[in-house]
Amino acid sequence: MFPIWATGIVFAAVYAQMSTMFVEQGMMMDTSIGSFTFPPASLLSFDVISVIFWVPIYDRVIVPIARKFTGKERGFSELQRMGIGLFLSVLCMSTAALVEINRLQLARELGLVDKEVAVPLSILWQIPQCFLLGAAEIFICIGQLEFFYDQSPDAMRSLCSALALLTSSLGNYLSSFILTMVTYLTTRGGKAGWIPDNLNEGHLDYFFLLLAGLSLFNMLVYIVCAKKYKSKKAS
Fold first, then answer.
1. Which residue ranges does UniProt annotate as crossing the membrane (predicted)?
2. Is residue 234 part of a domain?
3. Residue 233 — pLDDT band, cuts 50, 70, 90?
């Protein structure tokens, strides 16, 4: 079970971007919506809205359709659900990278590269990446809890269920480690680096693409581990 568990750490590192790099990205975008100024940190609310949106969609629409094809009462097995979530995390990071590429291109066109000011690109463009991350959360987190509860030895169910929550803290440490290494490697020689104070002269898109690539590799490792895993009958 540990290889399956370990792949959840990378997703937790991706999920940590919701309250870190997504906020940094939003601070350099147009936060005005009419007469209202949208605080970038409030993006976390879109994650909650996404979860509220996807839970009934999953239970009422996706599961009944999947049940017809798989014959499983839950629509998907725990391993299939987590695999779908990992795929959505790749899409999330890729979408975030595309938004940043467009933001940086607009900054260059308007001559704002050397200025630490927001680019006139609406912060609402971040909604798709937040919704994808919320959907990934639904598939992975619930799938993890079901997997560790059903597949763990009967006497270790509480302990193994706690392992699913441990991935969250380890994922935050991994996110910090990746950010530290990226900053160290990209600022050598006096360079601004990928994530400088002024994001207009940086390459936050490269960082998101790095996480997308890491998530893709993590998903491929997960697929290999999931195929080799032999499920036990839940008691």
1. 40-58, 79-99, 119-142, 163-186, 206-225
2. no
3. low
Residue 232 covered by a domain: no
Alpha carbon distances (Å) from 87 to 32, 149, 211? 32, 23, 13
CATH of the domain at 143: 1.20.1250.20
Report pLDDT digits (tens) over 111-164: 999 888 999 999 989 989 988 998 898 888 888 878 887 777 777 767 776 777
Whether residue 233 is contained in a domain is answered as no
Specify the number of domains making up the chain: 1
Find all residues with CB under 8 Å of 75, minimum gap 6, and list them.
62, 63, 64, 65, 66, 67
Give SS3 for 115.
Answer: coil
Instruction: Provide the 10 A C-beta neighbour count for residue 75.
Output: 19
Residue 218 inside a domain? The answer is: yes
In the three-class reduction of DSSP (H, G, I as helix; E, B as strand; rest coil), residue 122 is classed as strand
Amino acid sitting at position 126? Q
Structural domain containing residue 73: 2-227
